[in-house]
Q: What sequence folds into this?
């Protein structure tokens, strides 16, 4: 029996009012994964490249891209082995029992809400850029919260996936506008092959790269709504090739022409007019990627409440009303977070250290070791070494990352505007 008698939450839904498992990997599923993963992270990569230099920056982007491709593959295999898994807490129960399930449930909800807060924060930066700070930043955060709340009201990922196409095109076009504009406007600044960061700044830059590939927390949920869950690997490879390529191009070109003064988000590194154009185009991904994250976070709670009941697939006041309340509560908390931590890079680094390390590296290593408890070949022994390394790497990233982020937040607090401030946060 699966742990706690869990079953696949979408099993036996044929003929139901709402059917979740309806996505094909080659169409909407890829766009949702790209929209969720390729969003805010890419906007911080040029500043990371400026800190590390071309060579270490490129090596880290490629290396982390390769490692997260492998860990994503492990997640897909673990889901196929255990079809009842819908999210990380289901998988954690297989490894650690009931207590592990509750800890991971809390952790993943916190991660989702903080990511949602990062999107609200970016929305306020965008609005301040477009309007030259025509209103209080708190109001811009509120406007972003209301918009994303409304767009998260659909319970099926397939409906949200239509927005994913807009989001994917939005971030690619915005980055390309920035790349071309910086190349034309470039003051020919200095760019270095190897930077000389301090331990604090270097590790913070590495965390920015890690959070750019930290979409794994949503992978189980995405795979659960595939018509054929075994096709997940194909979508994963398409995602990783796309995001690694875009990250390299954006980070290298923008840093080359913007130099050490490149800003984060990177769209602010162009002239005021071009920055407004780029942000206007990027509004799609700023809003929609947040909507997808909010949808997956709400679905985690919704499935926990109604798994195995008819309410999962009903169009009733209780089932849909519960969904609306969950979405409203999550976005309200995200609005509070966006106003409480008003520095873009610090918020991303905090997420990478505390959660991205475990959800992208550590737990995957443990999943593989659980599936391969008997090592029967040299290949399995080598892979066991790799997965032990992933767990150790996760511990290192988490510990050092929390230290670096704590120091940075302390330093930023002295120069940045305070929490819940109307001040311009560009």
A:
């Amino acid at each position: 029996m699966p742990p706690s008698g869990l079953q696949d939450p979408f099993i036996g839904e044929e003929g139901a009012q709402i059917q979740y498992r309806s996505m094909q990997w080659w169409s909407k599923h890829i766009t949702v994964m790209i929209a969720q993963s390729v969003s805010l992270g890419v906007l911080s990569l040029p500043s990371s490249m400026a800190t590390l230099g071309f060579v270490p920056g490129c090596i880290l982007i490629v290396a982390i891209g390769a490692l997260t491709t492998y860990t994503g593959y492990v997640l897909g295999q673990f889901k196929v082995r255990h079809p009842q898994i819908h999210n990380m807490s289901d998988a954690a129960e297989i490894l650690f029992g009931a207590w592990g399930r509750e800890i991971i449930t809390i952790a993943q909800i916190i991660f989702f809400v903080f990511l949602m807060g990062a999107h609200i924060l970016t929305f306020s930066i965008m609005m301040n850029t477009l309007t030259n700070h025509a209103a209080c930043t708190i109001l811009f955060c509120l406007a972003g919260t209301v918009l994303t709340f409304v767009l998260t009201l659909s319970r099926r990922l397939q409906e949200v996936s239509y927005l994913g196409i807009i989001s994917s095109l939005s971030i690619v076009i915005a980055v390309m506008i920035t790349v071309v504009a910086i190349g034309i406007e470039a003051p020919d600044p200095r760019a270095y092959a190897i930077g000389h960061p301090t331990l604090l700044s270097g590790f913070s830059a590495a965390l920015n790269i890690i959070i750019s590939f930290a979409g794994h927390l949503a992978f189980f949920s995405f795979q659960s709504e595939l018509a054929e869950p075994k096709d997940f690997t194909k979508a994963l490879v398409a995602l990783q090739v796309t995001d690694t390529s875009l990250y390299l191009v954006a980070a290298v070109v923008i840093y080359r022409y913007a130099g050490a003064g490149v800003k984060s988000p990177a769209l602010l590194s162009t002239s005021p007019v071009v920055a407004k154009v780029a942000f206007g185009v990027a509004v799609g991904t700023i809003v929609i990627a947040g909507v997808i994250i909010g949808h997956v976070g709400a679905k985690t709670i919704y499935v926990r409440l109604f798994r195995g009941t008819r309410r999962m697939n009903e169009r009733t006041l209780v089932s849909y009303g519960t969904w609306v309340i969950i979405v409203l509560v999550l976005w309200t908390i995200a609005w509070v977070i966006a106003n409480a931590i008003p520095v873009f890079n610090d918020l991303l680094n905090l997420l990478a250290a505390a959660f991205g390390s475990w959800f992208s590296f550590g737990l995957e290593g443990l999943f593989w070791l659980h599936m391969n408890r008997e090592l029967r070949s040299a290949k399995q022994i080598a892979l066991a070494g790799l997965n032990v390394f992933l767990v150790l790497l996760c511990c290192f990233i988490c510990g050092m990352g929390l230290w670096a982020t704590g120091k940075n937040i302390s330093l930023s607090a002295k120069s940045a505007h305070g929490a819940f401030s109307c001040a311009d946060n560009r």
Remarks:
- DSSP finds 14 helices and no strands in the chain.
- Residues 1-5 have pLDDT under 50 and may be disordered.
- Residues 378-415 form the longest helix (38 residues).
- The chain has one domain: 28-414.
